[in-house]
Automatic annotation (TrEMBL):
Domain Fumarylacetoacetase-like C-terminal, first and last residues per copy: 211-350
Family matches, as SUPFAM superfamilies: FAH
Family: Belongs to the FAH family.
Pfam families in the cross-refs: FAA_hydrolase (PF01557)
Protein name: Fumarylacetoacetate hydrolase
Source organism (scientific name): Sphingomonas psychrolutea
InterPro entries, sorted: FAH (IPR051121), Fumarylacetoacetase-like_C (IPR011234), Fumarylacetoacetase_C_sf (IPR036663)
Coiled coil: none
Record's keyword annotation contains Hydrolase: yes
Gene Ontology molecular function: hydrolase activity
Keywords: Hydrolase, Metal-binding
């Protein structure tokens, strides 16, 4: 593990799922009490491990202690970390924090123009900034606030999903397209206002039960979505626009959903121009409980290979980078680091979706690889 320090502070006391690139192909790994096992012969994918409830080291091939192995994010690592999921659908919940709700309204009112955002933000925060934090979505208080905002001409589709009964749940990325820590993440080359979205992400089985959590970067294009909510898929789903990792921390007696609810997530952006932005968000401020978001994801849909669910972000960077009043946007070369004490650290450098390595290993490629290795029998 020399040179790789993205693990949680208590990595020796937890159990973690991950995926690594080996000479033969991608393999799921399990880390139990700091010891690493190749689980490909137990179940050749992370999805199958979860569905078969094979989340113990039994039957796995012992690789050694994590501290002694060349596990890392670089291409020169003996076991290069990949995204820790494979066949799961990638879902995301939006506008689950009051701050992010306001930022989505600002994008909409500014029509995707970063230069107009500051004035819109001042007006909105003065009118409703303090009122959203205490409102329970779908409650009688939410209905009253909605009526007031409609009467004032300030209602928005984003406030509907922020305090209305229905959460925003969307598909973030295709199966097998997500990236792991150390990979380059992409923003569209024609976007001029964009940002990372540091989030806690749940891994759920086919029944919708969460089995663990990880960190994620739900890269967002504020200019595209601000011009029209119908551009959400173009704002969210682009080459290299979704990073997960470094591992899935499995739930056990020492790490539960309550730890997710209490998690603090930090963000640090370091630009090649010397620009530095930092921030911390608290999951305690989420407006919809993670279990409720899981329930709504499953309410009218099935996911036979399981799914992952981004829980939303509190942090929307507004610190000016270039001209005053234009806020933050990425530049190529930015190093984005998302961290949480019990989940580790996810680091990715920014490029454009055109310049990032193309996604070329799909489901058919994975199945062919597993068949050649004799892992599908």
């Amino acid at each position: 593990m020399a040179g790789f320090d993205a693990v949680p502070v208590d990595w020796r006391s937890g159990r973690f799922l991950g995926r690594v690139a080996t000479a033969a192909g991608p393999s799921p790994i399990l880390i139990d009490q700091g010891v690493v096992y190749d689980m490909a012969e137990v179940a050749p994918t992370v999805s199958m491990l979860v569905q078969n409830k094979a989340l113990s080291a039994r039957g796995g091939k012992l690789l050694g202690d994590l501290a002694d192995l060349a596990v890392g994010a670089g291409d020169d690592a003996q076991y290069r970390l990949l995204s820790p999921i494979d066949l799961q659908c990638v879902k995301a919940a939006g506008v689950t924090f009051a701050v992010s709700a306001l930022e989505r309204v600002i994008e909409e009112r500014a029509r995707g123009d970063a230069g107009a955002a500051a004035a819109v933000r001042d007006r909105l925060e003065g009118a409703i900034g303090g009122g959203l934090h205490a409102v329970v979505p779908g409650s009688a208080e939410a209905v009253t606030l909605k009526a007031t905002l409609i009467a004032d001409g300030m209602w928005s589709q984003y406030l509907e999903v922020a305090i209305g009964p229905d959460a925003e749940i969307f598909t973030k990325a295709p199966v097998l397209s997500t990236l792991g820590t150390g990979a380059d993440i992409g923003v569209r080359s024609d976007s001029t206002w964009n940002n990372p979205e540091p989030e806690v992400v749940l891994l759920a089985d086919a029944a919708g039960r969460a089995v663990g959590a990880m960190l994620g970067n739900d890269v967002n294009l504020r200019d595209f979505e601000g011009r029209s909510a119908l551009l959400l898929s173009k704002a969210k789903d682009n080459n290299a626009s979704c990073a997960l990792g470094p591992f899935v921390r499995l739930f056990d007696d020492a790490f539960t959903m309550d730890d997710v609810r209490r998690a603090e997530v930090s963000l640090r952006i370091e630009g090649m121009d010397g620009y530095v932005l930092t921030g911390v968000s608290s999951m305690a401020q989420i407006s919809r409980d993670p279990e409720e978001l899981l329930r709504q994801t499953m309410s009218e849909h099935q996911y036979p290979d399981g799914f992952v669910l981004f829980l939303g972000t509190l942090f929307a960077p507004t610190q000016d980078r270039d001209a005053p009043g234009r806020g933050f946007t990425h530049k190529p070369g930015d190093l984005v680091t998302i961290a949480s004490a019990r989940l580790g650290r996810l680091s990715n450098r920014v490029t454009t979706s055109k310049a990032a390595p193309p996604w070329s290993f799909g489901i058919a490629d994975l199945m062919a690889n597993l068949a050649r290795r004799g892992l599908l029998a």
